[in-house]
Amino acid sequence: MKKENGNRSKNSKKKCGLRSEGRLLGIGTSVVFVASVLCLKWLTFAGKRYTLPLFLKAVYASGGLPEYFSRVTVTAREAVTKDSAYAQFLPSYFLLYVAAAAAALSILRIVLLLFGKNPRFLRYIIYGMTLTVFLVLVTFGGYLPDDGLIVSVIAVGIDSLGHVYLEQRKQIRDEAEALKREEQEKKEEKKRRKHFPGRYDRGFYHVVWRNFVHNRKSYFLFILGAGGVVTILHTLLGVQYGLKAGGAGIGTGYGNGMQRILGEILPVAACISVLILALIITHYLRTRMHNYSIFYSLGIRKNTLRLIIALEYTVCLLFAYFAGLFLAASVLFLAGKTLLADITGSRPWSAGGWKTAAATAGIYGAAVLVSSLINYHLFGHESLFKLSTRRQEAEKMPHRFLVPGIAAGTAVTVSAAVRYWLPPEAEKFSANIWMLIGSFVLFYFLHARTAAYSSRRSETQGERLLSILPWRYRFKTNYRFWYLLFALHLLSGMIYIPEYAAVEAAGSAAGLYPYDFVCMSYEEDEDYFSDLSATCDVEIHTWPMLRCTTPLGAPYTWKQAAANQYMGVLWPQGQHIAVPETCYRELKRAVGEPVGKSLELEENEVHVVFQQDTSVKSHPLEWYIGDREPRFRIGQPVRSYDFMERETLFPQYVMKSSERSILTGMFQQGQQENIVVLSDHVFDGFFRGGGGKEGPTRLKLIKCGGDDYEIIEQKLQTYAKRHKNDASWDDRIQPYYAKQTAAAETKAEHHFKKAACLAVLAGLLTGSFFIFFIKYGLEQEELAKKFSQLKSIGMPEKERRRLLVREMAKIVWGSYVPAVLLSISFICAVAAKRMYTAWELAVYVKYLCILFLCYTLLYAVVTAILGTCYIRAVLGGRRRQRR
């Protein structure tokens, strides 16, 4: 009895403590809520901050909400009820009375709590009223929330969560204590069960070492693949570093060509690395599971087995990293000594030292981490025996929605190919992604449809039954490997082989700069250039120009979208050169190009000359969202404007025609400093009217003779300092451009792009080899059993070999041929959209043929060698076992 009374007194004390804590919490949060409603600034409207009572008082003193809104926003009284801002403000305003009522109920709650009452229904009513006010404000807006509203919502949230915690605290503590006791008992039982007082003898370590030596092929494959990944990554980063360190004159401005190329290539290389590593780790673990399961069955401790796996895994990764660094350093040394000597000088340049190695290690580590997470289910598999035999389970072949799936995949594939041709999104990488998605859906259902049809036909007519069985019972596995091969070939054919051929078609970088210096000057600079002409051996041509500014000079990125920069001033704004048609015709004569007939431009029409070479993707003049025709203003970029007036500030023009040509030089890789041709009378209207004379008005094209180049460049550097404000909007836009610097940058970009394309192509081709090797490596044991059974029923070895070769050919060439066929549309789009000349097209086709031939030969030779090895292992495996 005494014990029961004691327990009751303890429980009563706990309840009293709980109630007192709840009272204190409720009083505190209610006081904060009431104070925030009555005393703190609750809202901001029309630039003025109000407490809730003062705002309601101001509305009442004005004679009502419409009158107050009309007075504060300077809106006519009769137009208030039709105003959209007033319509948004109305729901939030009426909910202010709900907030005031919640404050009154909070005062009532404080009084009840002081007298020992804690009405739960009253608390929930306050919660609901505050939540309603907040949700209506978020939905409709109308005014900006201030400190009081935020503090009140926080106070209600703390009150709600605090009461929930106080009510459930005892139950949480009891459950935590029970769980802790249970875990402690399990640990003690496990410790007793796994107690091992001795040590492993020498025989154990001998078995582990023999197992390690016996499976050297798995380690070699692991190190070879991971080392190839490191080689590709370090080569890309090392070439970029070497070009910069070798004095190639790489610019450091926003979006310079080198960084742009690296930004396009590196994510793809990282994805390829993840794919290759994931496949290699899958193959490594699955082939090693049989040995691990034997160890486990013989009684090895789990911790010891995990230590063995971790050591093997870590050593392979580290060995692959250092081997890849060594191979990449050798390649970079030879490249710096031979291929790039005309850029960086005769001395070989370094591969970047520890900085590049550290960057490579970071990307490699991230790829290993992602690949390991993909294979996490293999690391943590409970039954090693079950995992080692898992690949022998049959797979279901899809049989529903085949025709709709084929139709949907065809639609996405065709739309992606068409989108790659259409402006303003021509040659966008997103079209390549949609092609991969569409082709995956298309061929998935197409293979399922074909396999189902062939299966029914073989059952009725008995034809090709053995060739259908692998797809019938291993459809998902076979399609997975088939599509991986297809995707790698498709990426090679539609992106990187055409890109390399396009760089080769660009020719010499020096031909892209017909003048030694190109300057944008002002009227007051005429005396400066007269003195320059008098003191140096130069030939200066002067043409009228105006700065042409577009609202957006680069693609709108997801980072800008996340920051909602579209609602503000867009950066960078595009800057180009506007000239009259007469000047345009003279510029073409000066570089030796045929002038042709008159452009016959109307008032609102322009002709655009994209100053870029064949290696640069086609793009619009500007990237303003939703426009197919360019918008621009005559004048310098605008530092501030109301985004609602953007389309008025940058009027839209009609691009009647366009061409790709070099009239002054390729600056900013054709992204900016292009030539916008206006009709003579439209240009004169801007030029003489004064409205467009913001910025430079004279285009100076300078050719120097003799050895005066360096002297002229030094003088122009002084000139650039006088006009440094012209580069304040965008540091890529300079008052003058020098031929030697720009040509060195372009040459370096060409070499880097070719090296990057070759590195990615090597990665894609290597990935295809690994996919083929891993597929048949995982299936070797099963194939050996299958073909031994065929031998047992009397099938000749020649027929068995032919059957296996036919199965391999479906994977090897059945993935390659469709990929090449789908690439043709993208290859043609590159030549058409970049407006290749006949000579450029001939060079482009030449290098396309060379690259496709080399790619195909390497693919055929290596897969043939690997296939021969597997055919020998499969067909001769049982014979060797019997011997």
UniProtKB/TrEMBL annotation:
Provenance organism: [Clostridium] hylemonae DSM 15053
Record's GO cellular component terms: plasma membrane
Protein name: Efflux ABC transporter, permease protein
Listed transmembrane segments: 21-43, 94-115, 124-143, 149-166, 219-241, 261-285, 305-336, 356-380, 401-422, 428-447, 481-498, 758-778, 811-832, 844-875
Coiled-coil features, chain-numbered ranges: 165-193
Membrane recorded as keyword: yes
Lineage: Bacteria, Bacillati, Bacillota, Clostridia, Lachnospirales
Keywords, alphabetical: Coiled coil, Membrane, Transmembrane, Transmembrane helix
Leader sequence segment: none
Database matches in InterPro entries: ABC-4_Integral_Memb_Prot
